[in-house]
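job 3f2a | input accepted
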Amino acid sequence: MTESKTSATEVRGTVDFGIISVRVDEFEAVLKRFAPNQIVEGTRTYALSTLSVTGDTGYSVAMVRTPHQGHLAAAQTAEAMINDLDPRWILLVGIGGALPDAEYTLGDVMLGVRTVDFSVQAAIQGRPPEFDIRGSYSHPKVEDLLAFVPALQKDLAGWTDSIQLPLPEVLLADDKFYGDADWQSKTRRSLQGHFSKPPLRNRIFLPGTIGTSNTLVKDTDLAVLLGKFARSVMGFEMEVGGVLTAARRKDKEYPVLNIRGVSDVVGYKRDPAWTAFACEAAAAFAHRLVLSGKILPPRPISAAPSIAKRAEPARVIPAAFELIRSQTLTGIVRIHGLTWSPDGTRVACEASSTATLLNTGGRLVRIESNSGAFHNLSWSPDARYIVGGTAGGGLVIWDTDEGGVLGTLKNATSYATEDVSWAPTGREILSAQEGIVHLWSIEIDEWNNLTGSSQPFIRGGSNFSRLAYSPDGSMLATTDRGVIRIWDTASKQCLADAKLSHSFVWKIIWAPDNKAVAYWEISNAGIWEFGTGNAPVSLGGQPQAISFSHDAALIATVVDQSLQILRRDNLGLVASLVPAATHLSTSNAAFAPGADLIALSGETKRKPHDPEIQLWQLDRLKIP
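job 3f2a | predicted structure (624 res):
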């Protein structure tokens, strides 16, 4: 986020959507997608984002976090937002617990058509709790929108593409369930129906009744009791009752849409991985729904002052850059990352269940997967094969020359493979699965047959999420719940470690000189020169990507949808490409190996739902 600030009085009445979240992880997931560019000071402090839909229309979105759970804090936050900003709609975006059901489950998104409030109850000695049920339907505009949900499937297709987490595993061991025998059996049948038979279905969104109270419902006896009062309840949360109270006024009622990613099922012990996934799912759905134009038509620039400030000027390309190639990728909603082949001839554009390989001559090859494996892919040293992780544990390897799957490999664990890294020798691959780093020994014979096996390489982690071999193969970098470590691959000893700002890291990348690693986490990126003994240094400005040049002297990053080129030694800005030059809302950037060629990807105003990749040549003689 930039440091620009404005007062609430200046933007009041221009805000289309006010988004309220509660938990820090919920709020971070929202901020990541809506990419705020301004701070608004009022009764509360808001993050303000401008979403451009076409060249002359868009939305203004304000985001705020309520500091505490429960109806009172939520009501106070919504009241402040209404008084400060007067938004046209209010979205409550976060997680919730669901009842076991054959239709929906973990990771899906519940949309509240009706709210049942269980807040008021009587506790009488020797008797079960008695509730004064206060049900309410949503604002007519919300009801109309959600009644139309079946017809929105095409408009919202690919809404999960921005979720950069694999689908967590569901273990059905007896100790994972709680409640009486009947409830455990019901919960087990529900989860088996959703997760026992691959390929697993995509996450879905569906409207229904959501229960709300000031009580965290994780007691099966209480769930059974509440179900007797409201049989149609899908799940439970703790804030919408307060937001609805603030939104209903004598002179006006504000539409409130409750969007809840399912983080747990009552009767099944919560897994933190599902909490993180549910936060991402709720934010991803909210972002796609807003951009679809199905809630509100985008405002003309003249009607939205906050958007008018970001009207795009004519393209002016700095002398240091030359556009080599641009390519629109149809059928892909969002590109998560860019990974160059070691020889610098092709770049893999990673999406949810597909990857497109673009070579510098313009040829495209698309590879598909049903495993949700296309996050943080790794190339073989000869640049022919790509390896990715599978949601059910193991590896899948593609032959990029042929564009098909070469084969899959499984090991004893069924934990999702979070990240992979191909060794410089070409004969080994490392994978991160929960608290273990696995070493895979593989062989591809002359007939292109794949064989391999794995063994634990490093144990004792809490949740290894990212890893990367150093360019010379002598070291390994890992992240584990916000701690980055450097390991000696021969002795398996930790050489250095440091604490990062967030518990989740999107990617770690080595400098070509083996002396530093770059990391990209939620709303932050930085460099760690681990050999100096200094702590990691943050780039600031909420960067979205990071990459080293081939000689390790420069760093490419993305801030406010613009490419920035920094000097590694002092992090000084030496060149930039703004959206006015690229006509691109840039979200990813990567230097090519062996050349000053940079790949960019992002959305264009011309085709907002078909991302574009651009290749730019950097002329070092024209930068300071």
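job 3f2a | The CA atoms of residues 440 and 454 lie 4 Å apart.
job 3f2a | closed
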